[in-house]
Amino acid sequence: MNKVLSDWRAIAVFVGPALLLYTCIVLIPIFWSLGLTAYEGSPITGFRLVGAENFIRLIHDATFFKALWFGTRYALFVSAGQVIFGLLLALMYAFYLKKTSALVRTLVFLPVVLPTVAVAQMVSKLFAIVPQYGLINSALHAVHLDSLVQAWLGQGSTAFWIIAAMDIWKAMGFYAILLYTGLVEIPEETIEAARLDGAQGWSLARFVVLPLLAPITVASLIFSLNGTLKVFDSIMALTGGGPGNATTPLTLLFYRTSFTYSEYGYGSTLALTLALQCLIVTLLIFWRARKSGA
Amino acid sequence: MQRTSQAQGTNPAAAGHLTATTSHSLQFLQRLPITLLVLLVVFIAVYPVVWIFMSSLKSSVEFSSSPMWALPHTLAWDNYARAWTEGHMSKYFVNSVLAVIPSLVLVITLGVMAAFGLEIMRWKLSNLASLVFLVGIMVPIQIVILPLFTMYFKAHLLDTRIALIITYTAFGLPLVVFFLAGYFKTFAREIIEAAIMDGATIYQVFFKIALPMVMNALVTVALVQFFFMWNDLLISLTFTQDPDMRTIQSGLLAFTGQYGQREWGPTFASIGLAVAPTVLVYLLLNQMVMKGMAAGAVKG
Amino acid sequence: MHKNIRFTALTALLVLITVAGAQSKKVVFLSGQNEDVGYTRIISELARDYQKQHPNVSYEYQNNTTDMTQKLQLLAGSNNLPTLYSIGEPSLLQQLYAKGEIVDLEQTFKKLGIYNQLNPVAVDINKKLEGGKLLGLPLELNIEGVWYNKKVFADNGIREPKTWDEMLSAAEKFKQKGIQPFSASGDQGWPLTRLLGGYAERYYGADAMDRVKAGTLKLTDPGFVQAAATVQDMGKKGYFGQGVNTVDYDTAVDAFLQGKAAMFYMGSWELRNFNDPKRNQIGAGNIGFFNLPAVKGGKGTMSDWSINTGLVVAMNQKQNDAALGEWMKYVFSNYGTRSMSELGALTGFKVSKMPATVPALTTMTQRKLNSAKKGYLWFEGYFSPKATSLSQKNVQLLVTGDMTPEDFLGQLQNGK
What is the 3-state secondary structure (H, E, C) of B107-132? Predict the structure, then answer.
């Protein structure tokens, strides 16, 4: 049997094509990109070796730090929101809804599959102020709260909350399903035993259910952070990083640096910091999870 | 599943000493806030989508003359016609289909083969190879965009569907491989080993046993990939400059840039057109989609 | 007789050989605007006329709706630049010229004997922008200033302001009455930085940006700070209306042409919409035009105008051969006249025959243009792509008060 399963030619046939494509399109470019950080230029102006210049520039670049801070703040906030709302929904599915649960789950999941660009366009119309009031502003106007009518997406302070709300709205149904799957797998005896010990409602959730859900919650958080740190579509389509660069995370700064300013070397340096950030966050969460024994 | 529905049966809020009837109405009253909450949640999740389709049928005057939440007075199907022709949504639609379908076929074919090779076959470096694929899940695509751009540029692949197809395929592979490898590990290993004992060749095993076993999983994972590819913006925005090559998402971005605030009707119609396929696929196959996405996340 | 026939046959043969031998040529025009408006429309029409007479020179128009700079970088790298193309970044233009990709139009036009078709003012402006060489076709000749709704002005007893303070007090009055003082696209950014630049030109004189370029003046100097603070103040007081940063270009045009705003800073290229009764609901006769007013103690005057020749359209040196020369002779000898008669548009080309009726608004603009003593470029004219982008993005933060004038200008001075 080993002979059949270790046939190198069959292995090459099965794994070869995927590995080859993956190597060419993903792996080699990763190393290439690392190399680019030592250069500056673009295909049209040509490249010149600049050594560590890009990294020196990075640590003096206020725009970079602003984007890093915005991206991190956004990721932490949105991921927390996605997982917390997901958890609340999951608890609702499991403990308060019976037969209706399937229908509610299906409906709440719907935003997950919608194209981000379309969702962003929709949200921009919801919060529009010109040439007509969007849904939100016209509702405020209708209940005579005109002082609250504002350019929601035209000012950095409110634009952040709208992007965050949109991305939480879009993904909460997904995390609800993920956590619900985990909830369903908790043995009924465990919950019954806790009930007999007098645990009810909140205390049941807090001391019995949530600790048991910890591993899948951590997994959800990693998955979510992995997505929110790389956010591109929703911000690109909703505010384009504006007003000014008030809603510009690293991903958009990278795009602008590379393709508008034609600074491929510095662009690669920004991309590298983004990759490192993703890596650090993942390691941090794994480490915390292991330490707390979850 | 069954376990929970039993667990749900005992309502922790219901107190034992009340008589059956009063407990029933009291239970209803106690549940009222939560019922309202559930309705609110469903409303928040679904209403915006309904709003898009409603607004897409409004004539341009209606946006300024009647409230944004009003039902359309007339059905201005014309908006869709304009988005489809003037807005070139028809072209973008075709481009998306021609990029996504071949990518799906490729990623599934290559993915199932690789998963089989990695999980079932025995070789020294299989763990390392799995790890290499894992990198692709964590690494942001931004880091490879510039080299890929330069590569496609030199190979004259920019503005072609091939660029989109190979990028979608390569970036879809890690998730497909992991999902299917997990599937092989749990369900197929023993059966396959038994078949080999009986003298089947590896290719027979793959086509006659392994493939039929993962057929359901294939559909699920293909669905998940469909949503990723159909909804992609970054890749299509970067590798296609030619308006004739745009996919529906980058096209929608350009369309709303062009018409933007002036023409709300056609803009909503184009949003509706971009959303419709995903909504349809989801309404038909929702259970499978949810299961697939959740499973993909847990494995990843 | 006999001889004659032979001669004719020989000529015909010769012609045939020449036609067959002349390489068929394809002229491609790449631009970001639609083909049926403005200069793209005229060029396309003339090129198609030419194609009818010379079937070996075909023509194709390509409309690009993505980032033009990015697109051109791509095309240049693969030696695929089209015959004519709009190019928004002066620095990229210089790079391409240095690589021998761009036609020196002064040389070529002189060689072809059509240099006299060009308006000298337009040539000067172009050269200023293009490092002393004529690299762009002056397909438009625009002046910029403040267009206003005459009726709204009259109803409120307001006359064309002569000083910036008068303009601001007029704005305040409109605001009190519930009329939006200015329409402006903050989404585009440049309509706001134009005001800032205009203020600085009035403060330092028409050579302000030339001095910044030469390094004798800094963007962080008091005049610029005052300019930025003034524009910021206008934004904070709500003179640009609600949600200025979400207003896109067409919405801003519409707001003015539907009578929703009293004033509109814009270039004369918008005459084509002002003269369009479908778009213009306040009536062309109801539109007035004044230059940005003077600043107290400033060196600039109201006879200094912001003048430009539109987005630079450059030509490809690699395709600059005899056949293209003939094409250029035909197209550019007729361009000025055709633009005037069809669009009532002012260009940097001579008009040989004035049409019988020119829209009054166009004539008025032409008069203002003729009265110009000095011209200056727009605020970002000499900036790098990066500083241009910073200026037009950050101005959104400036007008909402989220960025100080000092910070705004400091970033530009560094990124210039």
Answer: HHHHHHHHHHHHHCCCCCCHHHHHHH
Q: What is the pLDDT of residues A188-207, one digit of tens each?
A: 888 888 888 877 777 777 78
Interface test with A, best of C96, C393, C398 (most A CBs within 10 A): C393
ipTM: 0.83
Q: Say if residue A98's pLDDT is above 80.
A: no
In a mutational test of the B interface, the residue from A125, A168, A209, A235 whose CB has the highest number of chain B CBs within 10 Å is A125
pLDDT in tens, C196-205: 999 999 999 9
A1 at interface of B, judged by CB pairs closer than 8 A: yes
Residues of B in contact with A227 (CB under 8 A): none
CB contact under 8 A, C247 and B257: no
Q: A102 near A185, Cβ under 8 Å?
A: no
* C-alpha span between A28 and A8 (Å, rounded): 24
Domain range for B275: 79-299
Note whether C245 contacts A262, CB cutoff 8 Å. Answer: no
Q: How far is CA B259 from CA B83, B199, C249, in A?
A: 10, 65, 11
Domain with residue B209: its CATH number is 1.10.3720.10
Would strands C142-149 and C304-308 be described as parallel, antiparallel, or unpaired? antiparallel
Tokens, residue A67:
């984007």
Look-up: residue for tokens 């078949």?
B195
Pick the CATH number of A60-291 from 3.30.565.10, 1.10.287.3510, 3.40.50.880, 1.10.3720.10: 1.10.3720.10
Q: What pLDDT was estimated at residue B253?
A: 80
Most distant CA atoms of chain A, gap in Å: 79
Q: Write out the H or E segment, with its range, that includes residue C312.
A: strand C312-315
Q: What are the CA-CA distances from residue A249 to residues A112, A225, A255, B137 (Å)?
A: 22, 14, 10, 20
Indicate the pTM of the whole model. Answer: 0.83
Is A21–B44 a contact, with Cβ atoms under 8 angstroms apart? no
Specify if B190 maps to a domain: yes
Q: Which of residues 229-258 of B touch C (CB under 8 A)?
A: 241, 243, 254, 257-258
Interface chains of chain C (3 or more CB pairs under 8 Å): A, B
Residue numbers in B near A178 (CB within 8 A) = 294, 297-298
B136 with A230: Cβ contact below 8 A: no
Within 8 A by CB and 6+ apart from A243, the residues are A154, A155, A156, A159, C186, C245, C393, C396, C397, C400, C402
**Residue whose C-alpha is closest to residue A86's, from B220, C352, B294:** B294
A126 touches chain B (CB under 8 A): yes
The CATH number of C24-136+310-347 is 3.40.190.10
CA distance C323 to C315: 14
The CATH number fitting domain C143-308+374-415, selected from 3.40.1650.10, 1.20.1050.10, 3.30.390.10, 3.40.190.10: 3.40.190.10
Q: What are the boundaries of each domain within chain A?
A: 60-291
3-state DSSP assignment of residue C208? helix
Asked whether the beta carbons of C236 and C242 are under 8 A apart, the reply is: no
Alpha carbons C143 and C269: distance in angstroms, whole number:
8
